[in-house]
Write a structure and sequence with these properties.
Elements (H helix, E strand, L loop, with lengths): L10 E5 L3 H7 L4 H21 L4 E8 L7 H24 L2 E6 L7 H13 L6 E9 L1 H13 L13 H6 L10 E4 L18 E4 L9 H13 L8
Helix pairs in contact: 1-2, 2-3, 3-4
């Protein structure tokens, strides 16, 4: 078993890619990959809490994913509700607070209600924050940020008041920038995820498909992160 490094990130973000290909490689319908991928979500959330990493953000459903078939979207939304139902007791027991970013209002009513219910029930938990990016896009987040600022013209800021911290406070969620971004599935792109927040994030790409990404693969990513020297633009 791989050894957990001493140097750990405060915030890990993950692009969970490869569910569909995992199923296709086995001659199965795509939804089988999503079911198996949900098991990986449970394992990685559990490991993150065990490793005492305070923040985990999962790219669960992108704004572009609405282009998928109605059947696949329904499967993903049902999986979301099922996951939240099953994991709420674990979240409460392990002090995990749930948050969400994205255009949540676009989710089907059943999924949206369950999401908001679990967010409320876990709101006082303080040991770890799990953020689900749902109907999310980085460009859309910046667009919505500008809209929210401009909506109240009576309180528009002066130009000198618009700083990086000001912008961060008006994004979907005021949270620490990710230290480490993991993308599974072999692709090497960001796919419109946390575009503002990942300016100095360490990127880790793996060919392992998300349903096969478990505790050992996670530790390898953390070991790679621990070997990096982060200069944030300095020497």
């Amino acid at each position: 078993m791989s050894e957990l490094p001493r140097k750990l990130p405060v915030h890990v973000a993950i692009i969970m890619d490869g569910n569909g290909r995992w199923a296709q490689q086995r001659g199965l319908p795509r939804f089988h990959g999503h079911f198996k991928g949900a098991e990986s979500v449970r394992e990685i959330v559990k490991a993150t809490r065990e490793f005492n990493i305070p923040w985990l953000t999962l790219y669960s459903f992108s704004e572009e994913n609405w282009k998928r078939s109605e059947e696949e979207i329904k499967t993903l939304m049902n999986l979301l509700v099922e996951y939240l139902d099953k994991e709420l007791p674990e979240m409460q027991e392990n002090g995990i607070r749930l948050k969400a970013i994205g255009r949540i209002w676009k989710l089907p009513e059943r999924a949206r209600k369950k999401l908001l219910e679990v967010i409320e029930k876990t709101s006082n938990n303080k040991d770890m924050t799990l953020v689900l990016a749902l109907s999310y896009g980085g460009r859309q987040e910046i667009t919505d940020m500008l809209k929210s600022i401009l909506q109240n013209k009576d309180t528009l800021p002066d130009p000198e008041e618009i700083t990086e911290s000001f912008v961060a406070r008006h994004l979907y969620l005021d949270m620490p920038d990710p230290d480490l971004l993991i993308r599974t599935g072999g692709e090497k792109r960001i796919s419109n995820f946390l575009l503002w927040q990942i300016a100095y994030t360490e990127l880790y790409f793996t060919d392992v498909l998300w349903p096969d990404f478990g505790r050992e693969e996670y530790i390898r990513a953390l070991q790679d992160f621990a070997r990096r020297k982060r200069r944030f633009g300095g020497v």
